[in-house]
Amino acid sequence: MSERSGVWSTHSALQGSIQTAARVALVRHARSSHVHAGWISAGGFRAWREAYEAAGIHEDERVPVQLEQLVSRADLVLSSDAARAVASARLLAPGREIVVSPLLGELDLEGPTLGGLRLPLRAWAVAVGGRTLLRALRRQYPSAAEAARIDNAAAWLEELAVQHSLIVAVTHAMFRRRLSTRLVQTGWQAERGRRSLQPWSAWLFRRAS
């Protein structure tokens, strides 16, 4: 099954880059090589999560052409320290130096306990989303430590943007969402285009110098 359609956030923004503006592209990693089928309990979900974090990317992954073109113009490529993010960054920028940092890692995605109830993985994804939303409404998510990490990541990108005109950062779905909000709060502008959640999707931001 192809996940390449709809992954690109804005093609027109690529064509008209303004040299006086610093740009950041937040890219979600490629598909994980860890595959699971069947119903699992809360303990099984935690074990799945650990295996997912340790896994690299699917062996038949290919970088979308437009994303490849963008990365060819980037003067700095960053990555989360998760195996799937590092593997994605290496596929994106073969032969180039990748700056790896835990600052760009995924947020906590712990699911509810639900007793001994067994659910398919898709249902656990819904349960995790519901738990996360409830905790966010109670101002319990992200945690203080994770919120500080988001702030530090945004400040790091701000510092790097002083010397780099285009930065590509390979990161994760939930972290990207929170980091994007923080970037906008600190003066970055989101470029136009669809905000896809698919693997290899890129969200672009611009800050005038």
What's this, in brief?
Helix content is 41%, strand content 16%. The protein has a domain at 11-33 and 63-107 and 141-208: Rossmann fold (3-Layer(aba) Sandwich).
Structure description:
The chain has 209 residues and is α/β, with parallel strands linked by helices. It has a domain of 136 residues: 3-Layer(aba) Sandwich (Rossmann fold). The longest helix has 18 residues. The radius of gyration is 17 Å and the shape is globular.
Show unreliable segments: 1-19
- Total count of strands: 8
What is the helix content?
40-55%
Percent in strands? 15-25%
Strand order of the largest sheet: 4-3-6-1-8-7
SSE topology:
Blueprint: H1 11-15, E1 21-28, E2 39-40, H2 42-54, H3 65-73, E3 76-79, H4 83-92, E4 99-100, E5 119-120, H5 121-137, H6 144-161, E6 166-171, H7 173-185, E7 189-190, E8 202-208
Parallel strand pairs: 1-6, 3-4, 3-6
Antiparallel strand pairs: 1-8, 2-5, 7-8
Helix pairs in contact: 6-7
Keywords:
Rossmann fold; alpha/beta; six-stranded mixed β-sheet; 7 helices; 209 residues; 16% strand; two-stranded antiparallel ribbon; disordered N terminus
